[in-house]
Amino acid sequence: MKTAVEVSNVSMRFNLSSQKVDNLKEYFIKFIKRELKYTEFWALRNVNLSIEKGDRLGILGLNGAGKSTLLKIIAGVLKPTEGSIVVKGKIAPLLELGAGFEPEYTGAENIYLYGAVLGYPKDFIAEKYNEIIEFSELGKFINVPLKNYSSGMKSRLGFAIATIVEPDVLILDEVLAVGDAKFKKKCEAKIQSMFDKGVTVLFVSHSLPQVQKICNKAILLEKGEIIAVGEIADVSRIYEEKTS
Ligand SMILES: Nc1ncnc2c1ncn2[C@@H]1O[C@H](COP(=O)(O)OP(=O)(O)OP(=O)(O)O)[C@@H](O)[C@H]1O
Description:
Bound molecules: adenosine-5'-triphosphate
Number of strands: 9
Family: Belongs to the ABC transporter superfamily.
CATH architecture: 3-Layer(aba) Sandwich
Keywords: ATP-binding, Nucleotide-binding, Transport
Number of domains: 1
Structural class: alpha/beta
Largest sheet: 6 strands, mixed
Number of helices: 8
Radius of gyration: 20 Å
Protein name: ABC-2 type transport system ATP-binding protein
CATH class: Alpha Beta
Organism: Anaerocolumna xylanovorans DSM 12503
Domain ABC transporter: 19-243
Distance between the termini: 35 Å
CATH topology: Rossmann fold
Helix content: 25-40%
């Protein structure tokens, strides 16, 4: 079996501001006077994980357990405080669609911008440009600034750009919003076709039935630490015990 994703000793620290700063001026004054106080908070602690090629891994855990933080680190959106990540092949992070969009630029311009954020070369985006527009069904709105899009339109464009590669690793969030029911169906069909090709999947969800339907393996996170890892049936049992 080949490894698709290797997470080694990953820890993530956030500095939680423990006081209210009302404006930028106040922030700078407090900053210079060294009056800013932070509480250190470790959202992930010493996470080690090896995901085999073709595995579909569910990430389970209560609110605040660190699930999204782990996915963002694997997707390269967040840099871990400690540890390292290796991802083999192309990755399609379907997390916060369009988080890298620029509101003042048109949809067409954002295809290049967001494509660059996802690490696609310019030539590749140019080649796939029409396909992206076609999938997004934005028609003439593609030349309108993003600030005039509805949230559904933004996520449609985000999905169309993020799935233009044939990914080796697909990162999915249960709460992924991709527009109306009709467009959602089209996205689900696209995701299913990636599943059929044997893509490696990382899936975050609070719905155990949904995780059981999609995944063969799972991990259970608690307060930033992995407390169970293995076959979906075994981890489900532990998760049910914890949540009942
Ligand atoms: N940018 C940030 N700054 C400070 N704290 C953060 C930041 N992002 C996440 N956290 C904290 O890290 C912890 C883990 O958050 P994360 O979003 O990974 O949890 P989760 O398991 O995905 O939760 P949920 O099920 O509620 O979506 C939380 O306590 C959260 O408050």
